[in-house]
Amino acid sequence: MDLIKKIIQTNLFKITSLNSLSIVLKLFIGLITSKVIAIFIGPSGLALLGNFRNFVGSFETVSTLGFQTGIVKYIAETKEKESELKRYVATVFITVFVVAVALSILLFFLSDYWNEFVFGGNYVFGFVFKSFAFALPWYALSLVLVSIINGLGKFKKVIYITIIGNFIGLFVSVLLVYNYQTVGALLAIIITPSVLFLISFYYANKEFPLFSYIRLEFFDFKIIKNLSSYFLMALVSGVVGSMVYLAVRKNMMVSIGIQQAGYWEAITRISSYYLLFASTILTLYFLPKLTVAQNNHETKKVFWSFYKTIFPLFVIGVTILYFARFLIVKILFTPEFLPVTTLFFWQLLGDVFKMGSWILGYQFFAKKLTFAFIITELFSLLVTYFSSFFLIKTFGLEGIVIAYALTYFIYWIVLVIYFRRSLF
């Protein structure tokens, strides 16, 4: 009983419990939105959503300059020094706002070009990109504010923002998809995060007077220089990665059909729900621990804390998901999506490999190992790109998830070798 009480009293347990509630709500909300999307737009519409999500992800990365992880690190280190905290908040906020506005101008005036680039000449969704142009600055600033709150160590507030965002997303998605089908689903992707700015601003302003911090007199170019390495890392994973997956999906549409690409988007959507649990725990709890670790011994304790607690639970969870795959597809989607069940084994195996590698990959951000991160990330993206094209041609639809599992198996092995001193 004493052991159980000690476990319950740990910060990890408290954060995990609250985060678990957030994930349960996310899954419930995802069930409803996925069902609505499946009914009103089907697999082909889901494939188009996947393309747009990749595009939005790349612009999100560029608009924030990939600073989120760096913000968490530096805010965590300077939160007790008010003058330095002001410099970081002002510099990051002003920089991201200016960059996001510049990108919004490109989005608005080149909307027809982006439409053809993402969807091809058969679809006319130019006004969606114009809408995204107005939403992007608020989208980017909400991400910055959440990172600041995370850096201050206010983990619960970050999870509260996530929970509120999920409910806003549910309302917006159902309303727009019901009334406007595919167009509504595309608009829901960009509206929800921008509305979340108001929530994140409210919570950030409770921690410190935000308006008194965001002043040009506190702007410091040295901070931009310090954060530049994070931009390079985010550029590879966020922009190059998004473009690779966009290219893979477009290849699927041409070679095996848009319907098949929609099935892949469906399994990816299912995967993203439960991976959210682990990624949130990694960001909220393990990343700050890795950031302050002073040597290999301390880093090793953080790594193995993850492998002994979160990782085994994840493996058990995906095993249960595999045996419940038919029920999951029927609940989340419609009978039209039953071919998705053939993708579960390789997708779940790939997720296990991904989870094993994620904790090691976070060390790149924690210790600003920019060059090593870029090389390993580009290597994994090359494996993804070429193996996907080859395996889709060889195995059809199942080839895409085999390529996914292969990529993360190789990536995990590479990271284990690279970080062997911190692990063993």
Q: Can you walk me through this structure?
A:
There is one protein chain. With 424 residues, the protein is mainly alpha-helical. It has one domain. The protein is 88% helix and 0% strand. It is built from 17 helices and no strands. The protein has helices at 2-9, 11-40, 42-64, 68-78, 82-109, 111-119, 126-151, 155-207, 210-213, 221-255, 258-292, 296-323, 325-332, 344-366, 370-395, 398-418, 420-423. Helix 2 (11-40) runs antiparallel to helix 11, helix 3 (42-64) crosses helix 7 (126-151) and helix 4 packs antiparallel against helix 5. 46% of the residues are buried.
Low-confidence stretches: 1-10
Number of helical elements:
17
Q: Major sheet: size, sense and barrel closure?
A: none
Strand content: under 5%
Features:
about 425 residues; disordered N terminus; mainly alpha; globular; 17 helices
List the helices and strands and how they pair.
Blueprint: H1 2-9, H2 11-40, H3 42-64, H4 68-78, H5 82-109, H6 111-119, H7 126-151, H8 155-207, H9 210-213, H10 221-255, H11 258-292, H12 296-323, H13 325-332, H14 344-366, H15 370-395, H16 398-418, H17 420-423
Helix pairs in contact: 2-3, 2-8, 2-11, 3-5, 3-7, 3-8, 3-10, 3-11, 4-5, 4-7, 4-11, 5-7, 6-7, 7-8, 10-11, 10-15, 11-12, 11-14, 12-14, 14-16, 15-16
Could you provide a short overview of the structure?
The chain is an all-alpha fold and 424 residues long. It has 17 helices and no strands.
